C-alpha cells in the first residue's frame, strides 16, 4: 500500500514539475513596436502566424489556390497547435506557432544612374521567436540560406560573431545581400547590415523605439482589434517624406528635385498626421482598413467633399468589360467638393506651398485636357467616374453625367480646342481623330473625356456591346462592395497581384504548375480579380476600406520577386 502511495505521489510530483516546466516555457506576447526604431519610415506587424494561417484556410480564393499549388497551411488542428505553442514539437513548428514579426523600413536610399533615379528601401524583418537561441540557431540559419538561394540563385554565405551571431549571404554579382543576426530569442533579417544593427540597438535599449510614439499608439487603438491579422503605421513626418517623393509625378516632374520635395514634405506634414493600416478576414476575402489622420482644421473643411448623392448604375453601360480600374465619385456637388478640398489644403499652407499644392490639384483634371476645373464641374452632376481601360493605356478617361449640356460644350470647346489639340463628338458611332491629343464624346446623358486613344477604345467597346452588363457580369465586379454607401468607391483589377502570389509560390515549390493546374489557377484569378475600396470621412481623417481576395498580403508577396528597386526617369 505504501508503495502504491509512493508511486502516486511521485507521479503527481512529475506531472506538477512538467506542468511548471511547460508553463515556464510558454511565450509571453510582446509589443513588437518595442523592437522597431522610433523613426521607422514604415512599420508592419503580424502577431500570430497561426492566426494568419487559419484566416487563409478560410479564404475562398486560397481554398482553391493553395491545394492547386500543393501548399497546405498545416495548422495541424487544435492539439498539435497547442503543443507547438507550448514548445513540445519540432523547432520549425514551434517557431511558426509562437513567432511575432515586424517589418520595418529604416531608410530610403536614392542613386542616380544616367537618366534614372533608383529608390531602394533599407528594410529589416524582426522576428521574436520566443524560443532560445540555442534551439533556433540551425533552423534560422538554414532558413536565411534558403531565402538567399531563392532570391540570388547561388549566393555566397559567411558567418561571424559581432556582439550578435551574424550570417551574411551575398548575390553572385555582389550588388545585393541578405544579412541576419541572432540575439537571444530574436532574429533580425535585413537587406543591409545597417538596417539589422539599427534594430539590434533598439532591442538593446540604445535607440528609442516606436513604442514611444504616442500617435502610433493612438492610431493602433483606432484600427486594430484582437481579430486583426496585421497592423501597419507611417508617422506624420515620414508620410510627408514619402508623399514628397511621389507627388512630383502628378505635376509632370520626376523625383529628384530636392527643393520641391522639401516644400512638399513640410507642407504635407501640416495636413497629414499619420497613416495606419490593419487587416481582417471578411466576405471570404481580406479587408484592409487604411486611416489617414488629418489635422482637425483640415478635417472640418472637407465635409462638402464627402456629401454623398444617391446615383444609379447606368454608367456601367459605358465601361468596357476589360477595364483595369474604376473610381466612382458620388459627391453631391462636384464643384463644392473641389472648393472644399482646395480650401482645406490652402488653409494650412503659406503662399508658396499653396501654389504648389494647387498645381497638384489642378493636375487631377489636366490629364483629361481640362484646365478650368471649377467652371466645368458646375456643368456636371454625379456620378463622376475615372476609368483606366487597359494596362497599356496612358492615363485614364473621365465619364460624367451632364447637368448643362450647352454650357459644357462651350467650356470643352474653349479648353480642348485651344491650340487645336482636341475634338468634341456625339454618339457611339463617332470615330475620334487620333491625331488630336484629347477627345470628348457625348453619349446620351453622359460625356467621356480624355486622351483620344483611351476615349476611342472605350467608344468602340460600347458600340460593340463589349461592356459591363447587369446581372452576372456586374456582380463579379461589385462582389466585395455590395450596396456601398461610401462617397468614393474604387474597383481595381487584382490580377497582377494574384499572379505575383502564384509566381512566388511556384518558385518556392521549385516547379511550374501543370497545364491543367495552370488553367485552374487562371480561372480562380479571373473570378477573384477585382478589389473594391470604399473611401469615407471619419471623425479623425479619411478612411479607406479595401476588400479583395488576399488583401495587402498579396502585395507583400510581390516584394519577393526578383526586382525590388523602383526606378523613375529623370527630367532631361
Q: Would you give an account of this structure?
A:
With 572 residues, the chain is an alpha+beta fold. The chain has 2 domains: 22-223, no CATH class; 297-537, no CATH class. The protein is 40% helix and 26% strand. The protein has helices at 2-25, 49-57, 62-68, 77-85, 91-98, 133-152, 193-203, 214-223, 236-246, 258-269, 296-301, 334-346, 351-366, 373-377, 405-416, 452-463, 472-478, 495-509, 515-527, 552-558, and strands at residues 42-46, 100-113, 116-128, 156-162, 164-170, 177-183, 186-190, 230-235, 272-282, 285-294, 325-329, 380-388, 397-402, 422-426, 438-443, 446-451, 488-493, 530-537, 541-548, 566-569. The protein has a 20-stranded mixed sheet that branches. The longest helix is centred in the first third of the chain and has 24 residues, at 2-25. 37% of the residues are buried.
